[in-house]
């Protein structure tokens, strides 16, 4: 669909919707796309977990990383409906169409902020020299498990890239809290192909920010102990990413 269409009418600009869920994403990414996976320890305990998942499901990671998030209001007749993206099998073939149903009830965090749900759409703005670039994206799925929460967004026409990025926080049995970033992408058009080295550097820059975004000290009344990110192997020398996977 044209990038001139209202943002809430645009379809995502790639085919493999939901592929960031695939356990073998790094080995078998969608054809023509470059995968990425990062994971970092961001803290420990109930307060850190509550903070992490709430921020993740309210665009907090993006906002804390320097993005300006402009949520797009969907027309009321569509906002009352739930959105389920296309389903894919292990080979990436579509097996279930996207559907809209009447179960899309809006849920709010304790502080009153609306939690993300599939179908939510936003402009993500970043500074670029004297300019501020805006890129459209849509939430394609939400993870809501007792110890694992997050979401993924897909790019829309008009974005610099095509692909998907997932932001998931997890709580381990020992109470440690981790954030994982998984993505696959490629430049979104001819101009962006010409600037692909810059795109790749920009992606790396913001991914590093994502990993630090939820590790800042919490307010004294909610978190008497603040834990900064720690690498899985202190000898590795990375203060942000405990685990890194990237193609050679």
UniProtKB/TrEMBL annotation:
Pfam families: DUF1990. Residues 229-248 are annotated as: Disordered. Residues 229-242 have a biased composition (Low complexity). Residues 13-79, 114-213 form the DUF1990 domain. This is DUF1990 domain-containing protein. It comes from Schumannella soli. The lineage of its organism: Bacteria, Bacillati, Actinomycetota, Actinomycetes, Micrococcales.
């Amino acid at each position: 669909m044209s990038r001139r269409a209202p943002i809430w009418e645009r379809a995502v600009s790639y085919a493999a919707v939901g592929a960031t869920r695939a356990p073998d994403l790094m080995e078998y990414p969608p054809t023509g796309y470059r995968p990425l996976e990062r994971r970092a320890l961001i803290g420990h305990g109930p307060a850190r977990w509550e903070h992490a998942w709430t921020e993740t499901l309210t665009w907090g990671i993006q906002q804390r990383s320097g993005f300006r998030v402009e949520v797009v209001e969907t027309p009321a007749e569509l906002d009352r409906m739930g959105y389920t993206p296309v389903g894919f099998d292990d080979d990436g073939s579509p097996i279930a169409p996207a559907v809209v149903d009447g179960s899309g009830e809006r849920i709010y965090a304790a502080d009153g902020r609306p939690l993300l749900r599939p179908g939510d759409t936003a402009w993500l703005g970043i500074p670029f020299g004297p300019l501020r670039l805006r890129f459209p994206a849509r939430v394609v799925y939400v993870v809501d498990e007792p110890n694992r929460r997050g979401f993924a967004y897909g790019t829309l026409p008009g974005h610099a890239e095509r692909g998907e990025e997932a932001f998931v926080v997890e709580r381990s049995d020992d109470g440690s809290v981790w954030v994982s970033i998984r993505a696959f992408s490629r430049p979104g058009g001819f101009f962006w192909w010409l600037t692909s080295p810059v795109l790749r550097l920009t992606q790396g820059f913001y991914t590093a920010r994502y990993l630090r975004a939820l590790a800042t000290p919490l307010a004294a009344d909610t978190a008497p102990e603040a834990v900064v990110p720690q690498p899985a192997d202190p000898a590795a020398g990375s203060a942000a990413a405990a685990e890194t996977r990237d193609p050679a």
